[in-house]
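We now fix the convention by which a protein and its fold are recorded. The integers have meaning only within a learned vocabulary of local backbone shapes. The record below shows the convention in full.
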Amino acid sequence: MNNPLVSIITVVYNGEKHIEQTINSVLNQTYSNIEYIIIDGDSTDNTLNIIKKYEDKIAHFISEKDSGIYNAMNKGLALTKGEIISILNADDYYFENTLQQVVDIFSTSQSDIVYGNMVKLRTIQNKDYLKEVVPNISLIERTMPIFHPATFVKKTVYEKIGNFNEKYKLSADYDFIYRAYKNNIKFEYIPQPLTIFRVDGISSINCQSYKEGYKILVLHGSPYDKEMKRLVLKCKIKTLFRIVFNFFIRIFGLTKWNEKRLINKWK
């Protein structure tokens, strides 16, 4: 793969807070052979005005209602011309040499999917705290083993196994990765941080992702489906605890104490 075209898809809806940082992280890459595609879900805030500032540098821009995040991603996939495809969330952003590192691996190996580390970002009291996390592909039959925003896929993989299954609202990326694994697609790991991911997104506060994960494990014949089913119950208990905990935080005026607790956790 000599200087391959890399297609990057960003799906966004009312993302005015962070979309500009996301766009700039793509446009300011040290690797330049990029096709940038933005699929907007008919935003009602200032998102569209921000995107239009960069319209001359965006290959495709669509703004219309969709039936979910994976429906929007599939719209983006249908537009791609690149040999390598990545999906970057509207809250997240790349390191400036991310794409060059990925292209170098694809150019010197027979890999079909390249993935790396991700850096979680949480903002507390207007200060950013970062924590690097490492994927573990050996967990693929138990849970999502790699980080979708730090994963790069050859277009030929989508052509072979299909796009995202839109019946899943939160976990279609896991279903896609599992299908790739079952089809003997070759994965390769880069032991480097590739993407910064903002926590507290939709999948981090919704037990539906565990429910879908259970269905995916059953579908693919994983021997660990019952473990995931137990995680569904555990998530419901944790969610209830979080609701009660936050209620008492507000009632007893412990917001500052809770912020200090979170800062210590993220240091």
